[in-house]
Each structure stands twice: as C-alpha cells, then as structure tokens.
Amino acid sequence: MSASPLAWILTVAAIIALLVFDYVFHVRSAHVPTTREAALWSALYVGIALSFGVGTFVFGGSSMGSEYFAGYITEKALSVDNLFVFLIIMGSFRVPRENQQKVLLVGIVISLLARTAFILVGSALINQFAWVFYLFGLALLITAGNMFRPQTEESHSAQNVIVRFSRRLFRTTDNYDGDRLFTRLNGRRAMTPMLLVMVAIGGTDLMFALDSIPAIFGLTQNVFVVFTATAFSLLGLRQLYFLLDGLLDRLIYLSYGLAAILAFIGTKLILHALHENNLPFVNDGEPIEVVEITTGLSLIVILVVLLITIFGSLFSTRGRTQTAMANVRRDARAYLDAEYTDDAAERERIYRRLLDSRDHIIALGPKAKQIVKNEPELLELCRRASASHESEATAAGTPHTH
C-alpha cells in the first residue's frame, strides 16, 4: 500500500518541525544536557516513532506496519552503532561539551538529506532493474564481513578525505571561537574546528548511508516506509548520544549483532533477486523458485539478535572493563583539557566517573593486565587528573575527593 500525497506532506512537515523545534529550544543556546533532559527527550522521540508505527498498522495494514517496525529497529540499531564513531570524531577534534549538541544536530540533518537522496535513487533503480537486489545483497554481505573485524578508535579517523581537502583548500585555525564556523586569524577569515568537525561527521554520514539504505530496502520496497523508518530512527539521536554517554563502549557485541543482521538481510535480498531474476546468464534469465523470508520472520530475527547482543554486552565483565578503560582515557583527557567545558557540574561529573572507572580497573587485580591495554598509561592519566582536581579544590578552599 502506497501513501497518499497528503500523508507525505504531513509527515515531512512534522519531521521538519521537530528538527526546527530541537534547534530553537535545545541547541541554539549552547549547554550541556543533563541525564534527566536527555532521557526525557529520548523517550519522547522514541514514543513519537512508535506511535507513528501504530498509525502505520492502523491505516496501512499489518504488512506495512511490520515493515515499518522492522526497518525502524534496524536503522535505530545502526544509528546507535554510528554514535561510537561520532564520539571518536568529536574527541579527536576536542569539541567543547557545550557545542557537541550543535555538531550532532547538523550531522543528523546531513544524514537525513543524504539518506533521502539515496532512498530516491535506490527506489528508482529497483523499479527499473531487478538485478539491483543482487548488488544490494552483496554490499550488505561485504559490510557484515567487515563488521566482524575488531573495531577500535584507531579504526576511525576524524581526518577523512573531505577534512584533509578542506584544510588544504581553505585557511583553518586550531582554536574554537565559541560555536562560530568562521573566525578572524591574523586579520583574515578562517575556518574554525567547529566547521571542520561538522564536515567530518557529514562525510562519515555519507558512508553510513551506503550501508543503511540497502539494509532497509531488504526489508521493504515501500518508499514511504523506508523514508519514515529512516527519518524517525535519526530523530532523537542527539539526545540518545548524551543519554548513552559512557555506555557506548560497553556495547562490545553490538557490531557483531549488526553484522549478523546485515548478513541475514543481504541473504534475504539475494533470495528475492533470484525469485525476480531476469539476468540472462543466471538460469537463462528465468526466475528461480527459492524460499523467500517474510517480514514477520525478519522482525523476529532482528529483535532476537539485538536482545542477545545487547544483554550479552551489558552483563559481560569484558564489556564493563572496556567501558572503564574508555572512560578513563576519555574523561582524564577531557578533565585536563581546559577548553573542554566551563560547566563546573560537568567537570565534577566526568571526574567522579573517572574515579569509578579507575577503581573498577584496580579492583580487577591481575586480570586487568589481560583485559586492559596500557594499564600504567591509564593509571598515570588518572593520577594527573586527580592532581589537577586537588589543586583546583585547594585553590577554591573546598574538600577534594581522592
């Protein structure tokens, strides 16, 4: 069932309104969101997405509703996995905590525009050439294989091709000037790192779209469902970033779960391509009778795999330890960086989390050497951050925490 022009207009208008609302009431004034704020708005956006899915069930039928939920859950999981890369990029550029919201919102808008373009191109190709399903399926299988390889911070670089090109072509500065995109350097106009990090995240979003769109086309070819599931999975991603801060590194098995899901969808696409086959060198251009995977089964497989990988990550000792490692490295560097934030409450929050993570690593004893890489380096970072905290506390005349 295809959506009416009125449904398209109302949906697009609602999505634009939510983005504008997000900017005007939350992002325009730079601040560090509290956990309560992030949780409240994350729940609201998820609620909007789920309500839209119920509406799709009611007005579009069970098949369309199932396709929406399968697509939304898959896209949301892929988006959460992408947040880890965003975290690395913003850490590489030393984005002040207060300005990270604006960077994320710009990244979401770029991602939405890029994926909309890919959706339109993908839909046109599918309608014209049935063999495109072979390409989409193969692309997902290759992506799944790549995701099974261990991912580390060194696997991703903020200095992508677009950023390197921008640095060579334009005059840039190493220092931020609030949230300005341009500043004056020696009397001349220059790009700030704020614009460069937006370019880096935008370029990364383009790469993510190449994986994301074939995946959802493997679940449905209804363009309205593809667009809405993708759009609603991106809305609220900014709030989710701050809500999951400190937990992203703990989802150590999520990438493996997503790899399994993408491999499953890639297989589903190739089976569908065989069923619709018209390539002359495959079965003399005739369709091949194969078992096709239903949307209902796809939804069940996606949910089961995600639940197993998420709970496996959360209850894993290695997962908790890797979270502690990442927190120590990230929080100590952030605390020692005078430009990271001017918010005293935020500085105290990351310092207390740093101490908790340090204590977790120390409590492991000999096991730490098996799991934690560069343990002495991490503990040295903790020592320097503690010394800085004690110095600040002494200067302010307040008790300090060891």
TrEMBL record:
Compartments where located: Membrane
Bilayer-crossing regions: 6-26, 38-59, 79-96, 103-125, 131-148, 194-217, 223-244, 251-273, 293-315
Pfam families: TerC
Keyword Membrane (UniProt): yes
Xref: InterPro entries: Integral_membrane_TerC, Integral_membrane_TerC_rswitch
Entry GO CC: membrane
Positions in coiled-coil regions: none
Family according to the record: Belongs to the TerC family.
Keyword S-adenosyl-L-methionine part of the UniProt annotation: no
Membrane topology classification: Multi-pass membrane protein
Protein name as annotated: TerC family protein
Record's keyword terms, sorted: Membrane, Transmembrane, Transmembrane helix
Organism (species): Kribbella qitaiheensis
